[in-house]
Structure to design on (978 residues):
């Protein structure tokens, strides 16, 4: 039976460590806030005011009307052509424009085609530019016959704000960062400095040590997460539609999984530096890249999609987005939660085995 | 070789070294004695230019170390209290590195240290990884590394801590030989039997000099049978005085 | 000349330390290789395999043809659903991301040319995917409509041809719109930054923690020698890593270098003054390796987020664009992309050249000063 006063003693020591290193603490608090603000404001996939060079060889009413149609949208901004001859490649190389539009001499009479050349070095932007241009041209020619009217209904996030997507994601990031990264570093630091041996010779049990060590980090992680939640809701009006209790329940599960991951890392890594590198390599990067935090899993090659199945953040992201944005209840998130439980159990078993091996 | 006037070091309001005056001759073995925290390491660190004195001056070989730090550094070999060679390099690679730093061709450096290496019996372990060596060998290697550039002045801060009695004798044999060849050796130690081997010693307490002189004369003055007795007696007297 | 020898001993020592430590080798060459691979495939803003469900209340041949026309590209993955389900419920339970609801009477309205409508329900939590999904569906419908019109025109050849403007577009430099063309140079820029900054940030604190710095300071080694002795090896390692990355990009992602290799190296060399300088600066300011890691990591994250790596700087609000102007990584990334993709020359990159050069000079000088003060 773990003894509370011992756990308290160890936890207190850990809190001192955390508080003493105030610079690291500041980074832990500041970093997510900064990311939140950058993501909220800067991560915008919409393109506006794409610089466009136009070469109008027709110079008639029809061509002018077409150019006007381009200017009148917010999408394009016409920049003057400096040279006599339109050379898209060199325009793109000097980055004066991202697209060029060439209107042939007989446009409006015998000719109906106009030529758009797009700088596709950023294929995503190129695709968007093409879509905008197609839209402008097709509305310019007017509707030929009544087509199909598409009535989109965007659920949960009608303005398609990226902050709705990133704020819950950040919470998942922070929790894994603090619970897995910091705990694994702190445990391996004690091992490196020899103070772990000191503790191990005292009558403290392994579970007391671990509980004492991880409790302050759990608290720190949860506080940080709530801070992000608060700022995100205030600054970006991110909704919280689900039940707070459900949120706490699943967050606790995720914290548990992250801790098991941190524990596993610390049983493998010999030094602090190794722990940092490994933690970075197997917690942060995968969470950042493969959890669906930024890049949709469904767009990845099949091998990577399989790989995402063992990344805890993948499940928690579904959970927290579901709770916050969709108002999901336990019945919707049961499967994701179960995956977290299984993962924790497996990691804990492996970590415990390794821990014993090291001691013998 | 070394001459200090009213050497003082303050950390904030705390005086770690208080008015130390030293005059150490060529070929002399000079010992620093004193309890933990007495200020030995701090004094030595000032003497080799790692710390700036708060006041007072230090001249080495007639050169003010504040003004001629570059020249002075070539004359100094230093073995720190904390082991400070690269643990992930081989022993020989550490030596090669320091030879390079002192701009001594490696062959010449090896010649400089050959005798000591033989005396210590280090030849066989030169190609091992430094971090894997036993404590005593690390200490020996540190001493050797301080000698690659054949410095006339050698500072050894507790060179024999963690070293077995047999090896301690070897250390002092080496120290004696170095002094024989005209080097000044400044040693700090907690072993009172080692103090007997010094030509002169200073006993420090709370940053101040308690006594300074030849071991034999000091023992006579204070009617002590051994250095151990002397040490405890002078510190006791000093404490009584300051109360 | 003797000074060079001192630096050479440092370089030898650093390389020996690195080669001896398996962890370091993995970090320097294994990890970046994995990153290049994983990120090369994972980092893309392409939206594919959207889970699409149909609620077809019309059940006519037209509606079936419409459903069929979604079956082509890898953009959608059609999920079968119960036809009496509600669209909201399908999305709320994560079964579908988009639901197309075909109302009863759709084909009648459509075929009569009266104008018909479809309901599209989109899961908006990922704003980007939602916008793209919307565009995809509109595209498919447009195509469906065009094909139908043509067929009708063929069947009724008497109706007069409609004058229309045709947009012919061409994609320069990347006709297949491969996203790796854009992301790989970006990843390489990030790798170069991470390696050089991490190595130099740890360099001094590590010696401080080990106690070896004290030993070095009693030697007559000059500050500039010590600094050069640290930085030259890191410069070499980072440039070596860059070569590996370029070769891997060519072999795995079939990315050819369009521009001059030497120009790329020139810019990389200049850029490294900034990152190595920053690393050394961090190293002189912190007390432990852990702090060094956290600090450099913090700076790198900001650099990366504001670099145009994930989202083009042009898309950002003006205030943030202005901030990224002071982000050297953003300029280096531009340079890498321009040289690799478009084969731009020095003249076309003159602005970036001067910015990177001055940033390198300024930051490096500051770090030299702080290094002298600290030690
Ligand atoms: N950088 C520093 N800042 C503040 N105080 C210091 C610093 N370095 C040393 N001290 C203090 O100065 C005093 C003298 O320390 P010093 O290391 O010189 O003792 P010492 O005689 O070498 O002891 P030991 O036998 O334990 O090595 C101690 O009280 C120590 O705490
Ligand atoms: Mg000492």
């Amino acid at each position: 039976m773990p003894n509370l006063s011992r756990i308290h003693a160890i936890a207190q020591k850990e809190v001192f460590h955390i508080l003493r290193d105030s610079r690291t603490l500041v980074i832990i608090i500041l970093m997510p806030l900064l990311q939140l603000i950058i993501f909220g404001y800067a991560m915008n996939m919409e393109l506006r005011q794409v610089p466009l060079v136009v070469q109008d060889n027709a110079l008639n009413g029809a061509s002018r009307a077409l150019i006007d149609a381009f200017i009148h949208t917010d999408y394009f901004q016409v920049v003057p052509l400096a040279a006599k001859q339109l050379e898209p490649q060199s325009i793109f190389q000097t980055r004066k424009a991202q697209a060029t539009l060439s209107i042939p001499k007989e446009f409006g009479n015998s000719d109906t085609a106009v030529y758009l050349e797009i700088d596709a070095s950023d294929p995503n932007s190129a695709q968007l530019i093409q879509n905008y241009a197609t839209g402008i041209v097709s509305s310019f020619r007017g509707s030929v016959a009544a087509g199909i009217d598409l009535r989109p209904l965007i659920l949960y996030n009608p303005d398609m704000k990226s902050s709705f997507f990133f704020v819950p994601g950040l919470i998942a990031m922070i929790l894994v960062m603090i619970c897995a990264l910091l705990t694994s570093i702190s445990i391996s630091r004690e091992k490196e400095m020899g103070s772990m041996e000191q503790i191990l010779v005292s009558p403290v049990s392994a579970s007391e040590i671990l509980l004492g060590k991880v409790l302050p980090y759990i608290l720190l992680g949860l506080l940080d997460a709530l801070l992000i939640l608060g700022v995100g809701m205030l600054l970006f009006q991110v909704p919280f539609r689900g039940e707070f209790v459900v949120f706490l329940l699943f967050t606790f599960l995720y914290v548990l999984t992250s801790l098991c991951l941190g524990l596993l890392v610390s049983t493998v890594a010999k030094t602090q530096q190794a722990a940092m590198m490994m933690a970075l390599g197997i917690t942060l990067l995968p969470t950042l890249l493969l959890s669906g935090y930024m890049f949709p899993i469904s767009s990845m090659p099949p091998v990577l999609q399989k790989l995402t199945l063992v990344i805890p953040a993948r499940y928690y992201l579904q959970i927290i987005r579901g709770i916050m944005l969709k108002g999901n209840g336990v019945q919707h998130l049961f499967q994701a939660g179960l995956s977290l439980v299984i993962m924790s159990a497996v990691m804990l078993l492996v970590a415990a085995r390794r821990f014993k091996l090291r001691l013998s | 070789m070394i001459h200090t006037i009213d050497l003082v070091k303050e950390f904030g309001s705390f005086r770690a070294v208080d008015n130390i005056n030293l005059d150490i001759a060529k070929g002399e073995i000079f010992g620093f004695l004193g309890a933990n925290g007495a200020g030995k390491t701090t004094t030595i660190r000032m003497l080799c230019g790692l710390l700036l004195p708060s006041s007072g001056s230090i001249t080495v070989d007639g050169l003010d170390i504040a003004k001629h730090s570059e020249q002075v550094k070539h004359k100094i070999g230093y073995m720190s209290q904390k082991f400070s060679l690269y643990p992930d390099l081989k022993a020989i690679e550490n030596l090669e590195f320091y030879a390079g730093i002192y701009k001594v061709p490696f062959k010449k450096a090896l010649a400089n240290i050959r005798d000591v290496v033989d005396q210590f019996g280090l030849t066989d372990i030169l190609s091992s990884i430094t971090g894997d060596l036993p404590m005593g060998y690390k200490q020996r290697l540190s001493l050797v590394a301080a000698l690659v550039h054949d410095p006339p002045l050698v500072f050894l801060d507790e060179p024999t801590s963690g070293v077995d009695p047999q090896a301690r004798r070897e250390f002092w044999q080496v120290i004696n030989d170095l002094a024989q060849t005209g080097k000044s050796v400044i040693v700090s130690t907690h072993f009172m039997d080692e103090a007997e081997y010094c030509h002169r010693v200073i006993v420090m307490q709370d940053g101040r000099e308690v006594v300074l002189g030849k071991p034999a004369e000091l023992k006579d003055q204070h009617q002590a049978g051994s250095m151990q007795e002397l040490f405890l007696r002078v510190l006791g007297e000093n404490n009584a005085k300051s109360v | 000349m003797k000074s060079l020898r001192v630096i050479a001993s440092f370089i030898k020592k650093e390389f020996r330390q690195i080669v001896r430590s398996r962890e370091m080798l993995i970090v320097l060459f294994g990890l970046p290789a994995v990153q290049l691979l994983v990120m090369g495939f994972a980092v893309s803003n392409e939206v594919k395999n959207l889970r699409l469900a149909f609620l077809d209340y019309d059940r006519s041949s037209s509606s079936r043809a419409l459903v069929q026309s979604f079956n082509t590209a890898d953009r959608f993955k059609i999920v079968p659903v119960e036809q009496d389900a509600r669209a909201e419920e399908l999305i709320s339970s994560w079964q579908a991301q988009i639901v197309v609801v075909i109302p009863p009477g759709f084909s009648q309205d459509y075929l009569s040319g009266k104008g018909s409508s479809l309901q599209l329900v989109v899961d908006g939590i990922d704003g980007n995917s939602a916008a793209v999904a919307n565009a995809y569906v509109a595209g498919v419908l447009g195509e469906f409509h065009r094909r139908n019109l043509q067929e009708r025109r063929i069947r009724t050849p008497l109706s007069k041809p409609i004058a229309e403007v045709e947009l012919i577009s061409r994609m320069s430099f990347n006709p297949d719109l491969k996203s790796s063309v854009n992301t790989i140079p970006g990843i390489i820029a990030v790798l170069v930054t991470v390696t050089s900054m991490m190595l130099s940030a740890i360099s001094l604190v590590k010696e401080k923690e080990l106690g070896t710095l004290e030993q070095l300071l009693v030697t007559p080694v000059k500050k500039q020698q010590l600094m050069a002795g640290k930085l030259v090896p890191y410069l070499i390692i980072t440039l070596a890593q860059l070569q590996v990355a370029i070769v891997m990009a060519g072999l795995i992602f079939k990315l050819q270098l369009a521009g001059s290799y030497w120009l790329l190296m020139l810019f990389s060399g200049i850029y490294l003054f900034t990152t190595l300088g920053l690393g050394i600066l961090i190293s002189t300011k912190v007390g432990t390796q852990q702090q060094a890691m956290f600090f450099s990591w913090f700076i790198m994250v900001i650099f990366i987020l504001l670099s145009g790596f994930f989202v083009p700087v042009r898309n950002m609000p003006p205030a943030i664009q202005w901030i990224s102007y002071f982000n050297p990584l953003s300029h280096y990334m531009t340079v890498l992309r321009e040289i690799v993709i478009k084969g731009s020359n020095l003249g076309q990159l003159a602005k970036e050249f001067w910015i990177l050069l001055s940033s390198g000079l300024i930051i490096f000088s500051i770090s030299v000063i702080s290094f002298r003060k600290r030690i």
User: Anything to note?
Assistant: The longest strand of chain C covers residues 116-123.
